[in-house]
Specification:
Number of domains: 3
Number of helices: 24
CATH class of the largest domain: Alpha Beta
Oligomer: single chain
Amino acid sequence: METIRLTMAQALVRWLTAQKTEIDGQVVPLFPGAFGIFGHGNVTALAEALAEVKDEFPTWRGHNEQSMALSAVAYAKAKRRKQIMVATSSIGPGCTNMVTAAGVAITNRLPLLLISGDTFAHRIVDPVLQQVEQFGDPTITAADTFKPVTRFWDRIVKPEQLLKSLPQALAVMLDPAECGPAFLALPQDVQAEAYDYPAMFFEPQVHFIRRPQADPREISNAAAVINAAKKPLIISGGGVLYSEAAPTLGDFAAKRNIPIVETFAGKAAFSDSHPNYAGSLGIAGDACSNAVAEDADVVIAVGTKLQDFTTGSWALFKDPNLKIVTINTARWDATKQHATSVMADARVSLEQIDSALGDYAAPADWLGRAQNEKQAWNAHLDECGQAVSSPPAYNQVIQRVHQVCDDSDYILSAAGGLPGELFAGWRAKDPNTFDCEFGYSCMGYEIGGAVGAKMALPDRDVVSWVGDGSYLMMNSDIYASVLTGHKVIFIVCDNEGFAVINRLQVAQGGEEFNNLLRTTKHTNLEKMDFVAHAAAMGANTEKVESLDDIPAAYARAKASDKTYVMVIDVAQYDWVGGGTWWEVGVPEVSNRAEVRAARASYEAESKHQRPGV
């Protein structure tokens, strides 16, 4: 057998470059590159191996390990899981900085390969710089913190272990049911060790994502439940996008008179103008979708994990005899809430269920009601777009930008107050134009994620909506976007604090405390100059003083040849509304009458919750 003598790090990089996939008929790299911040643990052996292939397999330098790994997550999302980015770090704080990004990836079912340096396998020099020592178990290092937030975890302590580990890591990342991040810990000494690897291990291989088929009995059971429905409702989740099932689902819904509502992860599978599209569901959703969901007798949940923000903490659906049909590749998600489950690919399953339904269609007035509710909500949004206040509400800014944006502009956000305002208030002009990370609700994704999305979508404008709180948490990759030429339009909405958490605090009877900047313990309350700060990182910037200034500012941002940051002050208490109840812990005992009233409301609303049986 022909062999090639390589260090473990060289073998890893060579194997990564040999993996391919097919997109739109073209064979392209499955791993198009890496994000890397080098330190001890990855700067010698691994960095040396990456430098050898820097033109074929580019390494992009981030400015925070969490942020660069979030860029990799957003890249995978924009590529609909068809390509996977790598992120690498040193052994200590650089390693643990990536844990949050792993949490984002696993929560959102997205592929990501994380490679961290690790302590020496031989242990002779222990403890090394940045080593975390567990007195009762010397095998534990900082790298072990990734175990709860990855689908695949391995520590390579012999160079030849790559032969077994890498194919398994890749299989997990490409599995539509198990998809999530994979993590490799690479001890510093083992990275540099050489081994005679079989040459065939590095032969190019073209991979694809499987489309698992359903058991015919599952199709029959699901069709039977739907056939009995008088008020069926489709919940379209992120799996619809990853399966490329939106056209099939749209045709299915149109044929059967079924309204479609979307989750955060599934938003913009359909344009707002689709006749069956009835809005954004749940706690941060709109009044139209929630009104329809309250009366639904059958819910068809396609490619969604049914998190509490979608289901109103399972109090949204008021029909006591509600039936749920789930279509999902993941057994865990498919079998929730005692559903009639179809464990298979969304597109294939919908085609099979459609064939089994015969001439079934829901009553026309059911879809008509959803359409009327949607028209009323759109009228509300139009009215918001014409309103003028100072400072403006989030939704007023959103509607003004919506009026002037291109159909293909890719809208991105995460956490804070903007997700709800965009989820309920942004009307997708084209499909596949929205990314709001709200599975893990990770503040900071907006900036790093936007850079990754732009790398994945170089011919489109990526428009990232950022709250002042998120900006202050993680902003350094504005500089990365300038440095690498990945232009992003950032719209920074400044309400001087964590206003949406202040809203939740007050709504549950609490006093305003430690969320808005003026309610924090401070000596001098200085207003942050985001324009100057972003300009210092090389971006073009401007302060937008009023709603009427938005169209011209947006045009300048579009015309800019590099990252552009628009900053606008927004109101602290004005919200789009339309959402439903959400369960949060409200104290049973309190000295505040407002908290006691909130507790009473909590107890009344929780009676509507559907038991998970």
